[in-house]
Amino acid sequence: MMPFLKFDTSADALTVIKEMRASFTMNSIIPKPSQCQINKEVFEYDGHAVDAYWVSYPPKTIQKDSDKILLYIHSGGYLLGNIHSFSGLECRLSELFNLTILHVEYRLCPEHPLPAAVDDTVAIYRALLHQNISPSQLMIMGDSAGGGLALLAVQALINHQLPVPRGVIVLSPFTDLSMSGESYTRNRHTDISPQFDKNWYMAQLLGSNCVQLSLDDPRFSPLFGSFEGFPALYINVGTAEKMEDDSRRMWTIAKEAGVNVKFEEGLHMTHIYPMFFLYYPEAQHTLGNINKWIQTI
């Protein structure tokens, strides 16, 4: 519908990324319903403050002691995205899943290289537990980089010996910064996601130390971390996208670790296709499957 703009990555990186952010159009593809209720809350844990937004549609009074809460972690390659660009999607998910959504406004790269976004997500989760919200009330959902971030956050929770959420849902998760899956070659002509020079992109994500850091480091690439102790997991990916093998390989690893994992692949579908539920039935069908799965965990 809208071809991706071409950016000159030889120019000042932050200037280029600010231009990308200005042209990011998710809110025009999935507009926010006028009656959707969005309220900001600043969560703080151990001196670490993070912005978040409660999203409820239809509007209702949020009961933190009883509502199921879905932490939503947005995509944008760790570079783009905020509550403004994803509020339409999150409002619709609140309606479809009959859940309160908590949008995590994690810090973006390159101003805040990884793992800053992981630290933000874990801080919000710990703050929720500190508010006496039960892990059984909490689920985490993320798409693309947000899916990778959701997985990294749960791995961090397990490493800190904290209770895990009820379940995790990831759409086309970015699990391997080294991009070693064969689908990065196989599907490069059918994938619609932006094409960046890999070295330039990793420099934005990892900062000045990127040369010394390994892209298969489990602090950044959850595919190479442990899935032992993971909660119920729903993985969705399309067969026409570069990150197909990110999900397929993770599915295999999670099964071997004994995780209760559901894998759904959209035939001929491209990157994060369930987000486009306003446009085609395959996306609606997958979101319906996810909604049914939520009721079973």
From TrEMBL:
First and last residue of the signal peptide: none
Keyword terms: Hydrolase
InterPro entries with a match to the protein in the record: AB_hydrolase_3 (IPR013094), AB_hydrolase_fold (IPR029058), GDXG_lipolytic_enzyme (IPR050300)
Keyword Ribonucleoprotein among UniProt keywords: no
GO molecular function: hydrolase activity
Domain Alpha/beta hydrolase fold-3: from-to ranges: 70-273
Protein's name in the database: Alpha/beta hydrolase fold-3 domain-containing protein
Species, as recorded: Rotaria sordida
Classification lineage: Eukaryota, Metazoa, Spiralia, Gnathifera, Rotifera
